[in-house]
From TrEMBL:
PROSITE patterns: RHODANESE_3. Pfam families: Pyr_redox_2, Pyr_redox_dim, Rhodanese. It comes from Allochromatium palmeri. Belongs to the class-III pyridine nucleotide-disulfide oxidoreductase family. It comes from the Bacteria. Its cofactor is FAD. Residues 478-566 form the Rhodanese domain. GO terms for molecular function: monooxygenase activity. Keywords: FAD, Flavoprotein, Monooxygenase, Oxidoreductase, Redox-active center. The keyword Electron transport does not apply. InterPro entries: FAD-bd_OxRdtase, FAD/NAD-bd_sf, FAD/NAD-binding_dom, FAD/NAD-linked_Rdtase_dimer_sf, Pyr_nucl-diS_OxRdtase_dimer, Rhodanese-like_dom, Rhodanese-like_dom_sf. This is SidA/IucD/PvdA family monooxygenase.
Length: 566
């Protein structure tokens, strides 16, 4: 006598839920699988929302269809996957003793109780709002659901909004900023902290901010929203903490998300310290028959071992796949954790990160060394584009802890490479000898990642004493007693220069002009060039001639985020 089919219920139909359901179906044709989704849509490609709003593509169905172009609606789930997908249906409660989920169909009000053998919670997250007056005004939006994307796309198409404010200077905030800018809307990004993109270190964030401003959008940092101001129920302005009022007809709030844990909490499941549902490597909650994934859970940092939240679509899909397998073959698949890898497009810049920033690493107690490097992604004769990166490693072990890469060049390949190095616990030396693909259309002979590792290795071994742009600026502003040398050629110096009290001594002339340098061999000398390779070579020359306090401005002129003389 055959046993009855396994009953699987999945709550949440965005990313992790459908992935778990589809994977379970592939592994068990007989299982009964029910998907409960509060929104009208299923399997939404939410990372595509800003590009739909900005008019990069016009067909909304592209956000909810398969690679073959079939819309993932309840009919698709029924016919292609034999999964009952109930949309516009809210899960109300989980009864762990009876092993049932009660839910309500929102349009009709009809309720239903669905039994389960194994349950998946993929309830996602809710956008946070600043706790200030005026959030109920018309004209204030978030970008979280497909409905939000529809509303903002309609605003773009109507061409009536002239001024917008984006609250929050993170990834989503800047993707929205670009989308609104493409629609011809004058946009200002407001960030409460002192620096945009808080996962970047300040010099890197400063470079991105310069790029955003150069493209016509504005940024205000160190200033939060005190109130939304309205006229006749509609948004008219945003008031900042310092009292400034910015007139606008549209505000998009992108200050982060809160895990949706109400159902899990009410069912008595364990909630972690970071506010997400606690799960193990199998994505199992404190109830072995209930799994959870996506924005509502906590996972493990593969670098620190600490619990973290990682509300990203790709992570949700990976976790959903693990759950789908474990529903059918318990404890056969694991999700070990995350390295916090992310990327976004901000106008013509790519901004990519993996692992820890220098600031995060120091706050966690790591003793670190960093290296900032500027260079092209591919050779100049192949129309190579600029990349600026910072690599972070643990001093004692040389283990790579983080990497930030920005610029118009191909940062995504470099971030992916370092993400896997971090995942594998590799050192700077390992990366410096990596056998990466090379051909001029794709890379330099020594790829940007390898050069970054070489520079960091030189610093770890004391062969290079680098200074960040911020450290050099600090010395200049405080009138520190140091000599600054620009080792570029005269033509480069004419075209672009920092104006920080530097003396031009081209690298080729340096050995013949040593008599112009300070007699005091302990006086600090700072060298740089366009990307600081010539600066490094110049420093080696001076050290060989007895100067003992020679430093190099890391990343050179190209990584200087402050105003220049020319």
């Amino acid at each position: 006598m055959s046993s009855s089919p396994l009953k699987i219920v999945v709550i949440g139909g965005s990313a992790a839920g459908p992935k778990a359901a589809a994977r379970a179906r592939r592994l068990d044709e007989q299982a009964s699988i029910t998907l409960i989704q509060k929104d009208p849509d299923l399997s939404m490609a939410s990372c595509g929302y800003p590009y739909y709003i900005g008019g990069v593509f016009d067909d909304r169905n592209q956000l909810i269809c398969t690679p073959a172009g079939i819309v993932r609606d309840p009919n698709f789930f029924e016919k292609a996957k034999r999964i009952e997908a109930m949309v516009l249906t809210e899960a109300l409660a989980i009864d762990r003793t009876a092993k049932t989920v009660s839910c309500r169909h929102l349009p009709s009000g009809e309720t239903r109780v669905i039994p389960y053998d194994r349950l998946v919670i993929a309830t996602g997250a809710t956008p946070l709002f600043p706790p200030v007056p005026g959030t109920e005004l018309a004209g204030i939006h978030t970008l979280h659901s497909l409905g939000d994307a529809d509303s903002l796309r309609a605003i773009r198409d109507q061409r009536q909004v002239r001024r917008a404010v984006v609250v929050g200077g993170g990834l989503i905030g800047f993707e929205v900023c670009e989308a609104l800018h493409l629609a011809g809307i004058q946009t200002t990004v407001i960030e409460k902290t002192d620096s945009i993109l808080p996962f970047l270190d300040p010099d890197m964030a400063h470079l991105v901010a310069n790029h955003v401003r150069a493209n016509g959008a504005d940024i205000i940092t160190g200033n939060g929203v005190a109130a939304f101001l309205g006229e006749q129920g509609r948004l008219a302005a945003v008031k900042l903490d310092n009292g400034t009022e910015l007139p606008c007809e549209l505000a998009v709030v992108a200050v982060g998300v809160r895990p949706n844990i109400t159902l899990a909490q009410a069912a008595g499941l364990t909630i972690g310290e970071q506010g997400g549902i606690a799960v193990d490597d199998y994505m199992q909650t404190s109830d072995p028959d209930i799994y959870a994934a996506g924005d509502c859970v906590e996972c493990t940092s593969l670098i620190t071992g600490h619990k973290v939240r990682a509300p990203y679509g790709d992570i949700a899909n990976l976790q959903g796949r693990v759950i789908g397998q474990n529903l059918i073959e318990p404890n056969s698949a694991r999700f070990p954790g995350v390295t916090h890898t992310g990327i976004c497009k901000i106008f013509d810049y790519t901004v990519g990160i993996t692992g820890l920033s220098a600031r995060q690493a120091r706050a966690l107690g790591f003793d670190i060394e960093t290296a900032t490097v500027s260079g092209l992604d591919i050779p100049g004769y192949m129309q190579g584009k600029l990349l600026i990166s910072m690599m972070i490693a643990e001093r004692a072990s040389g283990r790579v802890l983080g990497f930030q890469c920005i610029g118009p060049g191909d940062a995504s390949k470099r971030v992916a490479t370092v993400a896997m190095a971090i995942r594998g616990g590799l050192t700077v030396e390992d990366l410096g000898n990596a056998d990466l693909p090379y051909a001029p259309p794709y890379s330099l002979a020594l790829d940007h990642v390898i050069v970054s590792a070489h520079v960091l290795e030189n610093k770890l071994h004391g062969r290079l004493h680098g200074l960040s742009a911020a450290e050099v600026k600090q010395r200049v502003d405080s009138g520190a007693d140091c000599t600054i040398i620009d080792t570029r050629g005269p033509q480069e110096f004419e075209e672009m220069r920092l104006g920080i009290g530097e003396t031009l001594i081209p690298l080729g002339a340096l050995r013949g002009r040593l008599n112009e340098l300070p007699e005091d061999k302990d006086r600090e000398i700072i060298l740089y060039c366009k990307i600081s390779l010539r600066g490094y070579e110049g420093a080696a020359i001076l050290q060989a001639h007895g100067w003992r306090n020679v430093k190099v401005l890391e990343g050179g002129v190209m990584a200087w985020p402050y105003p220049r003389e020319k």
